[in-house]
Amino acid sequence: MSPKPLPALPSETALLLVECQNGVIGIDSVLPDLAAVVRPSLPIIARLATGARDHGVQVVHLTFSPLAGNRSCNRKPLLFKGVLRNMDDWGPDNPATQVVDEIGVGPDDLVLPRATGLSPTYGTETFKLLRNIGIKAIVVAGVSTNIAIPAVLTEACDEGFDVLVPRDAALGAPADYAEQMMTHTIGMIARLTTVDELVAQWASTSVPA
User: Fold this and answer.
1) What is the pTM of this model?
2) Pairing of strands 58-64, 13-18
3) 160-204 pLDDT, tens per residue?
4) Rounded distance, CA 38 to CA 165, Å?
5) pLDDT at 116 over 90
6) What is the C-alpha separation between 38 and 45, in angstroms, rounded?
7) Given CA atoms 71, 90, 111, 139 in this order, what sign does their dihedral have?
8) Angle at the Cα of 198 (from 16 to 62), degrees rounded to 5?
9) What's the sign of the alpha-carbon dihedral 146, 40, 140, 84?
10) Cα–Cα dist 179/122, whole Å
11) Most buried pick, 2, 105, 133, 165, via CB within 10 A?
12) Burial, 4: exposed, middle or buried (Cβ in 10 Å; 0-12, 13-18, 19+)?
């Protein structure tokens, strides 16, 4: 069976890479269990980013970069309470808030940091920006399927975007729970696909430069 056609052209699609930064999935992660799950899949996420750049898909990095000596963080979530002590020196210039080298930041990529909140998009200008540059469909990858990715997908749907998730490039911990989330939650919000399927269809529909 041939893959279902994508809902938008590559030029009308954005790839949102969620928290693919050194302090989250890198070697010095404040969430080492998550980083260990993601590390074997970094080449797959990198291939997705490269395929997006090669075929005119807008790559957007959603990073977490607290301000004011980490006082900008929301202290209500138990997740933050557990890791805040390890984030005191995080900020715009700290390596922890930079995109991991395996994925990198291309010359046309957008980096949209946030300073507070569990959701990478709530209360930000992300969806307004994407709409203004002509984006109709959003591909969400990165971490994690536990909290951040479902939040982005729900908000993107409510904003009127078509949403897709490559199940081999969206990770969470533990791995078996992430798979349950993919089947029973994320799959109820977004169209599930794979990196190979996305890149192949982008290649077949992109307009040569």
Assistant:
1) 0.93
2) parallel
3) 999 999 999 999 999 999 999 999 999 999 999 999 999 999 999
4) 16
5) no
6) 9
7) negative
8) 5
9) positive
10) 25
11) 165
12) exposed
With beta carbons less than 8 A apart as the criterion, state whether 48 and 198 touch: yes
CA distance 20 to 144: 9
From CA 124, how far away is CA 129, in angstroms rounded? Answer: 10
Q: Which residue segments constitute the domains of the chain, with CATH numbers given?
A: 10-64+92-205 (3.40.50.850)
Give CA 191 to chain center in angstroms: 15
* Other CB atoms within 10 A of residue 176 CB: 9
Percent of the chain with pLDDT over 90: 79
* Cα–Cα distance, 54 to 206 (Å, whole number): 9
d(CA 95, CA 100) in angstroms, rounded, equals: 9
